[in-house]
Design goal:
single chain, 172 residues, mainly alpha, 9 helices
């Protein structure tokens, strides 16, 4: 059952990458139901992260933030840095989309530091979302400001990065 839930979540992400958001949402909801029925909290978090990506792509920033925040809380409890980085990247994307380039770059840099420490780039589809939103934020800043903010984010410890990403102003 856990494998079925995982597969449904991945299918949801793949379907979303083909811009079929309705079908993607259905698959992700089905995956979430399987994970909840199993009591697999980490799996619920994964599906919440995937659902966050879907909401972000649909420009439903309030929902995306709520989903990433809930997932992030789960992953912090498990000290699951791979998925913490995923959620940070999603929240950075929200900030970029809402014309908060400094906040976005700082969060993206913190997520990159987490990924670099694990020597993992993340999933290709999610990475494309991250790179697109990072480019949007970067284009809004001059090079000096970008480099300074990027450095600040890279030097945040994980707890500070999570706390910063979960500040109230990010969700609205």
């Amino acid at each position: 059952q856990r494998g079925i839930g995982e597969a449904l979540g991945v299918l949801g992400l793949l379907t979303a990458s083909q811009d079929d958001y309705g079908a993607a949402g259905n698959l992700i909801e089905e995956a979430k139901a399987v994970m909840k029925r199993l009591g697999y909290r980490r799996g619920v978090g994964k599906v919440l992260g995937a659902h966050g990506d879907l909401a972000l792509e649909q420009r439903d920033y309030e929902l995306a933030y709520a989903l990433y925040e809930e997932a992030l809380t789960i992953f912090v409890d498990f000290d699951d840095k791979w998925w913490i980085a995923w959620c940070l990247e999603g929240i950075g994307g929200i900030s970029a989309a809402q014309d908060q380039p400094v906040r976005a770059v700082r969060i993206f840099a913190a997520a990159k530091a987490v990924r670099d420490a694990m020597d993992t780039p993340g999933m290709a589809g999610h990475r494309a979302i991250y790179e697109r939103h990072l480019a949007t934020a970067r284009a809004q800043l001059d090079e000096t400001t970008f480099e300074a903010v990027w450095s600040e984010g890279r030097h945040m410890d994980l707890e500070a990065a999570v706390s910063y990403a979960m500040e109230e102003e990010a969700g609205g």
